Hints:
Elements: H1 3-28, E1 30-34, E2 39-46, E3 49-56, E4 59-65, E5 74-80, E6 84-86, H2 92-96, E7 108-120, E8 123-132, E9 135-147, E10 155-164, E11 180-191
Antiparallel strand pairs: 1-4, 1-11, 2-3, 2-11, 3-6, 4-5, 5-7, 7-8, 8-9, 9-10, 10-11
Amino acid sequence: MNLNTSLKCIFITAVLSLNINAINAHANTQQWSLTPATHVGFDIKSMGFSIVKGKFEQVQSSMSFDLAAPQNASAQFVLNVNSLSLTKPSLRNLILGEDFFYAEKYQTATFTSHQFIALGNNHYSIKGDLSLRGVTQPVVLDTLLKPNPTNPQLMDVEAKTVVKRSDFGMKKAFGGIGEKVNIEVFGQWQPK
């Protein structure tokens, strides 16, 4: 065997090895969706007291995740704005109206991840874009993601971030009351 043939064999072996590793890594990645009982919503507080809480009852979700390679993960949420339920139903027309969600014009809100950063001990920083009312802003979800201790088919999730509603074109808060909105996800992911 001459030198050129040996180099070709080494190159082909290296390429096949890389492809097999890529296939194996992809094979361990699982596709997930949120369980129907998972809470995806927000909490608006003032001086430590909750003013109103909301939950999106219709959420399309997907996550591609492998515990061994979280840096390759991705997640997406599409929230039906009109499915919003509130702790104070009397505020529904106001919150879905033009000053806030403007649900007549913007029927969905979305989150699309760009990067999962493993922080250790099942904690992740998930960077992505949140789109509300046709405005897209970068956000970071502080996330706990771990296998459920009683059902290994489920993955427990707690994720939260804080945004300013005026950053998304919503009416500015009077005196700053309710300007910061706590966005939260807690429940479980299940295999698709």
